[in-house]
Recover the amino acids of this structure.
């Protein structure tokens, strides 16, 4: 059974602290969390294993309470860390809080991470030497091949809008393109965060007619955007392994991204796309221009990207997760 400790209706991190809705959502989330803790106590008595997902900030606070609730019960615990900025989050904590975080990971029979740098950090800082740290990248639903017969280049940005993931720098890079190149480029953006601020920036830069900026999309609309775009762009300053990038690669999109977190493990510069420094607007613009001027290169990189993530199909992921569960339940956990 899956039990979320935070719902989308209660998520408040994207709202400013002065906004009344922030406090309404905080209260709503606290009530939901108290219900979740009560449910965990009940379910734990009939469970054979607990698989707990964790990330930075509020997620770690909630999971501390979850792990304390599960402690003392005769079921093994697996932690699954999705936090792309977890190392930075942890290093900024005072020593007392670091001890609390260490407690969480010390209770686990093993830890799942998304990338090799994350595994090295967990092994060095958080996970006892006698526990395994499994590398299990995010899965993708493998779509049927969708040829990109598009006029011009269509960029896609999916994720939280703001400076961390680089949506502002994507807009600036687009505005810096030579006019004859810029007229061939269309950009679609969707996510939570600074949606209206990005629209204002697009108007100020004079590229509003080439940009479609929306709040979070999902389902059929998201699938349509994945099929109708041929380049995924994400000059993020820190990542674990971005799910949106892997999904775009499965749909045959070339990639422009920064070499952070687990991204270089799946994108080789010049092969599946281009790796650019996250704050180098000129480099981001140059990568866009190169792909805009070469449809053949876009198609070639997109095909390579699709093949690169084929091992991440949901079917393969399910098998790997089953083997992890089997190791823990049989008491045969080993390093992977």
């Amino acid at each position: 059974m899956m039990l979320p400790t935070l719902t989308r209706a209660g998520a408040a991190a994207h709202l400013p602290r002065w906004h009344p809705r922030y406090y309404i959502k905080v209260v709503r989330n606290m009530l939901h969390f108290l219900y979740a803790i009560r449910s965990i106590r009940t379910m734990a008595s009939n469970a054979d294993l607990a698989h707990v997902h964790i990330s930075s900030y509020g997620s770690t606070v909630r999971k501390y309470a979850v792990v304390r609730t599960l402690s003392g019960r005769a079921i093994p615990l697996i932690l699954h860390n999705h936090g792309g900025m977890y190392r930075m989050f942890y290093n900024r904590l005072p020593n007392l809080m670091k001890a609390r975080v260490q407690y969480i990971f010390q209770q686990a029979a093993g830890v799942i991470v998304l990338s090799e740098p994350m595994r090295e950090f967990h092994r060095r800082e958080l996970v006892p030497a006698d526990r395994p740290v499994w590398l299990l990248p995010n899965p993708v639903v493998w779509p049927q091949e969708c040829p990109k017969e598009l006029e011009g280049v269509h960029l896609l940005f999916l994720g939280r809008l703001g400076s961390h993931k680089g949506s502002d720098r994507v807009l600036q890079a687009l505005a810096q393109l030579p006019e004859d190149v810029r007229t061939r480029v269309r950009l679609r953006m969707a996510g939570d965060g600074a949606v209206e601020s990005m629209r204002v920036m697009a108007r100020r830069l004079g590229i509003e007619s080439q940009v479609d900026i929306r709040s979070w999309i999902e389902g059929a609309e998201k699938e349509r955007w994945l099929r109708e775009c041929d380049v995924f762009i994400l000059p993020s300053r820190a990542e674990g392994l971005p799910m949106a990038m892997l999904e775009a690669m499965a749909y045959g999109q070339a990639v422009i991204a920064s070499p952070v977190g687990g991204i270089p493990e799946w994108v080789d510069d010049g092969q599946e796309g281009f790796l650019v420094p996250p704050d180098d607007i000129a480099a981001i613009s140059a990568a866009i221009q190169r792909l805009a001027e070469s449809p053949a290169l876009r198609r070639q990189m997109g095909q390579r990207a699709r093949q690169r993530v084929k091992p991440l199909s949901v079917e393969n992921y399910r098998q790997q997760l089953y083997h992890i569960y089997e190791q823990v339940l049989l008491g045969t956990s080993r390093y992977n």
Observations:
- The longest helix spans residues 20-44.
